[in-house]
Amino acid sequence: MKVLAVSGSPRPQGNTAFLLDEVLSELEKAGIETGRIDIAQANIKPCLGHDNCAGYKKCLQHDDMDAIFKDMAEADGLIVATPVYYYNVTAQLKAFIDRHYFLYKHDISLEFKAVGVVILAEEQGLDDTLNTLVQYLDSSFKVKAHELVVLTGYAAREGDAKDNAELISLARDMGQTLAATLKGAS
Predict the structure, then answer these.
(1) What is the mean pLDDT of residues 16-32?
(2) Secondary structure of the chain: what % helix, strand, coil (to 5)?
(3) Is residue 148 pLDDT above 90, yes or no?
């Protein structure tokens, strides 16, 4: 079994990354293979919005998305993590989400046995960001919103998550819950 984590944070060592690593650590302790993609470090071009996208056999963009889609197709579970930037997902994650339009237009829907969402905000935007991610997951994959494992919280400054015992506990609980879900689905 494998869980792929997609981090939308432009800070590979920031609060979101720290909590995501806590979730992944719990999965690894449970014997589940993990992988992580830092979207900000990947070469992902924005969707070009072709009117005839469904007519193309392959997306016309040549970047890392083909490899990422392959990794996603091989995973049993998915975690999407993002800090809140201007009341929603980061620009990097939005470009990644938009690129799923090709799959949608070709009626390709990946299926996961366990899905998690990690969202951290400074003050506001948790609800809007969660709504965006739920809509993305519902339209892109065979996942029901009530089956999601969600971790939301607040971290105002870089490093705040490392000092927040409650967030760390929630991240570890999320990892354990996802592991139990995956093992129960086998």
Answers:
(1) 98
(2) 45, 20, 30
(3) no
CA dist list (Å): 51 to 8, 59, 65, 139: 27, 12, 20, 19
Confidence band of 186 (pLDDT split at 50, 70, 90): low
The pair of three-digit structure tokens given for residue 37, joined into one six-digit string: 């993609």
What is the rounded distance in angstroms from the CA atom of residue 130 to the CA atom of residue 153?
Answer: 11
DSSP letter at 85? B
By the 10 Å C-beta count (0-12 exposed, 13-18 middle, 19+ buried), 45 is classed as: middle
Instruction: Identify whether the C-beta of residue 83 lies closer than 8 Å to the C-beta of residue 121.
Output: yes
Three-state DSSP class for residue 32: coil
44-70: average pLDDT: 93
pTM: 0.95
Helices 91-98 and 126-140, interaxial angle, to 10°?
Answer: 20
d(C-alpha 11, C-alpha 106), whole Å: 33
